[in-house]
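Tutorial handout. Part one gives the primary structure; part two gives the three-dimensional structure as tokens.
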Amino acid sequence: STQRLTGIGMQSQDALKGIVLEEGLDSQLRKIAVSTAHTKENRAPYRHLLLHGPPGTGKTTLSERFTHEGWQVLNVRELAEVHGCLGEVEDDGAAPVDVHALAERWTPPSGRVLVDGHLSHLLDVDAVGLLRCHPDTLAARLNERGYDAAKVRANVEWEMTSGHWAELLEF
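Part two.
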């Protein structure tokens, strides 16, 4: 879509330009951004948003676009490290985040905040954006990152079975 986000301090470029989104997600993200801007105009509390989805769906790429528009972007892994909620590095090279402990210890800062990270939907926020990706594209991205075959397969299967939706509905 070439439609511009309006009313949120956007410059001449479109923050979502060049990002391929699931049909309808572009419109939803734009509505969230505009409604957030309206909270500022009406001196209401700012919204705390997050992006959820498996690795490789574009959470960080989209988050980087929002930093250019005055959003404070927080990474769930970095939050876990700061709040003592990051476990020991496992065999696959990942350190697990104790999201339940993080949810108890973290208080959202003031202002427009976007939280980037898998499992971030367990934190205290006002809205969730679920990013999805075609399984073939996701597999290619994870392979490019050097994920082992088992981890690629697990993430692609999770995407194919819409495990994220069940996860979101659970909480």
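Part three, for discussion. Residues 25-41 form the longest helix (17 residues). The radius of gyration is 16 Å.
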